[in-house]
Amino acid sequence: MADNDDIPFNRDFPLQPGVVEQVRPGVRRVLCNNPSPFTFTGTVSYIVGEGKVAIIDPGPDDEAHAKALLDAVKGETVTHILVTHTHRDHSPNTPRIKAATGAPVYAEGPHRASRPRFESEKHNPESGADRDFRPDIEVKHGDVIEGAGFALEAVATPGHTANHLAFAWAERSINFVGDHVMGWSTSIVAPPDGSMIDYMASLERLEQRPEQLYFSGHGPEIPEGPRFVRFLARHRRAREASILHRLGKGEADIPTMVRAIYIGLDPRLANAAGYSVLAHLEDLVARGVVATDGDPVIGGTYRMV
């Protein structure tokens, strides 16, 4: 496949909730029963190692999923709990797994925004953040979490959230990429929690790494991960070009841009699309390409400089 070929999303993921599937030596996955337009068929939790294992992303506040994970490791010892980021479909089940296993929790840190909230922005208490999460051990980029038969390197991948980490198993050429890269769809980047500037830089960081096989927080595994990352970066640049094309016809608000750019969009995703457009606009305003009156916020009107 040439690098400039279009790479289709893969929505073929027949895994059923609660079923343990071994996908590679030392890698098992369990799907949570929380399907939605944002989570696809649900959140995927991973079990790394054999005998003494790590669990990556315990999932949402879901007792049945916690039981499925604990049943999957019956007779084994959970030595590590790793969390890629603090959205409510990934981290809230952590206390259940910790209470049952006593394993320490590793993550970048508590939830935080990518930038300070503007005065004109209203705080949304229904946002998808798990604001109660606190890791036992805060992990920074480059730290290596060692277990019995595995060593996982923390790779800082902010963008989807400010505290997003991937966990690279270099020896197996595997990277557990959370929600930063998904094979079934693009990731949502919604300011102020998310940042398009950070997201694009993190794509570049992943592209430069050697790991080829990606395991994502939703949907199937992604072969040729760095090549897929290049596709995602091209997609984001094309989205930016579409925004600029629309603004070239005159100033517009974000709903107008969403209607012009996202043809045939599921109406349930219109709000998320608006925030992705805002993430691009924040970047364009910061670069001096686009202007708005006041702060770049979801309700603003935008024009070419």
Automatic annotation (TrEMBL):
Key words of the record: Hydrolase
Sequence segments annotated as region (Disordered): 104-134
InterPro entries the record matches: LACTB2_WH, Metallo-B-lactamas, RibonucZ/Hydroxyglut_hydro, Sec-metab_biosynth-thioest, WH-like_DNA-bd_sf
Basic and acidic residues compositional bias, start-end: 116-134
Keyword Hydrolase attributed: yes
Molecular function in Gene Ontology: hydrolase activity
Start and end residues of each Metallo-beta-lactamase domain: 42-218
Gene3D superfamilies: Ribonuclease Z/Hydroxyacylglutathione hydrolase-like, Winged helix-like DNA-binding domain superfamily/Winged helix DNA-binding domain
Keyword check for Hydrolase: yes
Protein name (Swiss-Prot/TrEMBL): Glyoxylase-like metal-dependent hydrolase (Beta-lactamase superfamily II)
Biological classification of the source: Bacteria, Pseudomonadati, Pseudomonadota, Alphaproteobacteria, Hyphomicrobiales
